[in-house]
Design brief:
It contains 3 helices and 6 strands; from the N terminus they run βααββββαβ. The chain is α+β, with helices and mostly antiparallel strands and 120 residues long. It is flat, with a radius of gyration of 16 Å. This is YciI family protein. Residues 1-116 form the YCII-related domain.
């Protein structure tokens, strides 16, 4: 079954890292991928997202028509900064894999959710 591993954090903390700190953290992330990719547990790779101030949000306006605004609509401390797709036998296995993610400045939590399938 597929699971989405959502990596949460404060992108302002990430932006405050020195180049050496960022390089060290990226090395830890690359090591994580090197550990799990050969096992077949990572599918469809992952996606690192740009900072929240580059986002557009679409919401229904008062008249029900779509309204596009800059950035996130809500002022949140933590936002999703990356997504990794996992293939695991069950949620507990996905949780154990997610628990090995290198949490550091700018990455405060990892959430794992089953991906819905509408196959019939």
């Amino acid at each position: 079954m597929k699971y989405a591993m959502l990596i949460f954090g404060d992108d302002r903390e990430w932006d405050a890292l020195s180049p050496a700190e960022e390089q060290d953290l990226m090395s830890q992330i690359h090591e994580w991928y090197e550990r799990w990719q050969p096992t077949g547990k990572i599918v469809d790779g992952g996606a690192e997202l740009r900072p929240r101030d580059t986002a557009k949000t679409v919401r229904a306006g008062a008249d029900g028509r779509p309204m596009i605004i800059d950035g996130p609509y809500l002022e949140l401390k933590e936002v999703i900064g990356a997504v990794v797709m996992l293939e695991c036998d069950h949620l507990d296995e996905a949780g154990r894999i997610a628990a090995t993610w290198p949490l550091a400045a700018g990455m405060s939590a990892v959430e794992v959710r089953p991906v819905m399938s509408r196959d019939q």
